[in-house]
Amino acid sequence: MNFSIMFDKEKCKGCTNCMKRCPTQAIRLIDGKAFINSTKCIHCGECIKICPYSAYTPEPIEWYEEMHYSSYKYKIAIPGTPLYGQFPKKIDICRVQNAILKLGFDYVYDASWAAEIVAKAIAKKIGKEKMIRPLISANCPAAVRLIKNRYPSLMDNLILLKEPMEIGAMMARERAKKLYNLKDDEIGVFYISPCPAKLLAVTDPIGNYKPSVDWVIPLNTIYGDLYREVLSQDNKTCSYPSTSGIKWAVSGGQSESAGLNNYIAVNGMENIIQILDEIENGRLNDVDYVEALACVQGCVGGTFNVVNPFVASSNIKNIISCADYECINPDLDRFEELYESGVLKYRLMEENNPNNFNMKEAIERSEKIKEITDLLPGLDCGSCGAPTCSAHAEDVYNNQSKLYDCVVLRANEKR
């Protein structure tokens, strides 16, 4: 697996904040320093947010050099839906796309246009597929990988539609090839991302397709330059984002954009885990759709964003309520063609296929781990280097630690 989060061992003080916050229990404390199990990490960015010593940082992505010194003849930017929420309400959002062009791009294809297309696909898929309930959104890569790692029995609940980032890149690339007679390797597609999980979706997708995005730009790395351009230019000859599509930036926006009524919108990892527990226990079979976004308030809460997520959410809602323009979505009229051709959909890679999940083996493993957990004190103190007693029991089961690494158990044995 590729990795999008860097860890500086020298800065780590062994405080256990990250270990206790990690939703997949991928972090352990070894010799007083944090250690990330990359096979469990879902790149949600919670460790980046919680570490008081800045020991975790996003992988450095030199977008400027990649764009300006590459062989790409034509460079496309795909701004994520949270981007517009990063600017004050007084800013005319028409200026944002022009500002992106000023940074050296040749064309901007707004992710909100693609989100509008995917929303229609969600509504159609929910209407057609009645056997599985609830269906779960696949737009958030961190939430999808949480399900893969922690709830494999729910993988077949995922609504396997490509996310707006991928659809936008695919449509923009197709347009550039037709208009300018370019080849694929002459076109560079750059996604302006709110979070590190999007990088992993490009470098290590769970689906059986080659991503159309070439490079991911963390929003916070270009925000200063972008903001200055927004303030300095006054050209208003641009395309506006879709007011329906930019709803995707905020929790519940996908479902609203798709016109759904019977849905649950959940944001924040702890809340997602609670809802997934409910689904796994069969208590939400009367719900059509669960929209799960790892960050608080939705994608506006991503690690790469600059503005407070609640402020950004308010800014997005203000744009929608005050919109006095008509959005011209360049590909919305192609929806039926795109849906029927199957390009909006994907299949899971073989190793991610739920048919490979062995329920009997999983139950046996769970029972053995519970037996080990019952031997432990249940204090979840973290002194063994694992976040909880059950996590330590899992490590013992996997031969990654020893039972008596538990200091409480060791002390009681001595007495």
- Identify the strand order in the major beta sheet: 6-5-8-9
Radius of gyration based on Cα positions: 23 Å
Parts with pLDDT < 50 across at least 5 consecutive residues: none
Mean pLDDT: 88
Structural class, from secondary structure content? alpha/beta
Shape: globular
Instruction: List how many beta strands DSSP finds.
Output: 11
Pfam family, one: Fer4_10
Keywords: 4Fe-4S, Iron, Iron-sulfur, Metal-binding
Domain 4Fe-4S: 364-415
InterPro entries: 4Fe-4S_dom (IPR007202), 4Fe4S_Fe-S-bd (IPR017896), 4Fe4S_Fe_S_CS (IPR017900), 4Fe4S_Ferredoxin_RnfB (IPR050395), Fe_hydrogenase (IPR009016), Fe_hydrogenase_lsu_C (IPR004108)
Helix and strand arrangement:
Layout: E1 5-7, H1 17-21, E2 27-30, E3 33-36, H2 46-50, E4 56-58, H3 63-68, E5 74-79, H4 94-102, E6 107-108, H5 111-128, E7 135-136, H6 141-150, H7 164-180, E8 187-193, H8 197-203, E9 215-218, H9 219-232, H10 253-257, E10 263-267, H11 269-280, E11 289-293, H12 309-322, H13 335-341, H14 359-375, H15 389-397, H16 407-414
Parallel strand pairs: 5-6, 5-8, 7-11, 8-9, 10-11
Antiparallel strand pairs: 1-4, 2-3
Q: Short summary of the structure?
A:
The chain has 415 residues and is an alpha/beta fold. The chain has helices at residues 17-21, 46-50, 63-68, 94-102, 111-128, 141-150, 164-180, 197-203, 219-232, 253-257, 269-280, 309-322, 335-341, 359-375, 389-397, 407-414, and strands spanning 5-7, 27-30, 33-36, 56-58, 74-79, 107-108, 135-136, 187-193, 215-218, 263-267, 289-293. It has a four-stranded parallel sheet with strand order 6-5-8-9, sandwiched between helices.
